[in-house]
Write a structure and sequence with these properties.
Alpha-Beta Plaits; 6 helices; 21% strand; 38% helix
């Protein structure tokens, strides 16, 4: 099985059939309060970046929906200052990547992009929302929302194929209850960066 097939298996049909609840773009707003706990209780600050991963489809309707998301984000950038880019995922799929020092704006923009695609009839193509944090030493920590599972999980890469499981368990214990955290760790799928210290979106 290829890496892309593995991603589709975890975020796609396999996860959907095993999901205990449906994913909902509204769940992304849970990060609006969770990030305060990340800062106050754990000492992590927002890295100023977030992303939405989705599985593209070769149709004019889908491309039009993505272009609509881009045009509205571009218009909104004048008010919020949120910068964005659409890029291909190195493993397959596509990203809307957002940059803003204001975490609330990041949450709102990721939600908007996900909600627009869902409203256009492409909610089944949504894979994950990713929010980036860093500690005092600049080490990256992520919260990933799986649309197929309707739950969050932490991801702390220490390279391109290793992760800090002890920190992930600590994050789970602190944020569980504030976020809907995935209880089955087999669905804590690592979105490995291409290079050490890089982000999941490359």
């Amino acid at each position: 099985m290829s890496l892309l097939d593995s991603i589709k298996s975890v975020f796609g049909v396999g996860a959907e059939s095993a999901a205990s609840r449906s994913g909902d773009p509204e769940d992304l707003f849970g990060m609006s309060t969770a990030y305060l706990t990340m800062e106050a209780d754990l000492g992590y600050s927002s890295a100023g970046d977030a992303g939405l991963l989705f599985n593209g489809v070769d149709s004019s309707e889908f491309r039009q929906a993505v272009e609509e998301v881009e045009s509205i984000l571009e218009a909104g950038a004048k008010d919020t200052g949120t910068e964005f880019e659409v890029r291909d995922d190195p493993r397959g799929g596509e990203w809307v990547v957002l940059h803003d020092p204001d975490f609330e704006d990041l949450v709102t923009s990721v939600h908007f992009a996900a909600d627009q695609l869902a409203e256009a009839g492409f909610g089944s193509r949504l894979l994950s929302g990713v929010f980036s944090f860093e500690d005092a030493d600049g080490r990256s920590v992520y919260w990933i929302y799986s649309f197929r599972r309707g739950a969050y999980y932490p991801f702390v890469p220490t390279g391109t194929n290793t992760q800090d499981t002890s920190t992930q368990v600590k994050l789970e214990s602190v944020l569980d209850g504030e976020l809907t955290v995935e209880s089955d760790k087999s669905y804590w799928y690592p979105l490995w960066p291409e290079t050490p210290g890089g982000d999941p979106w490359g």
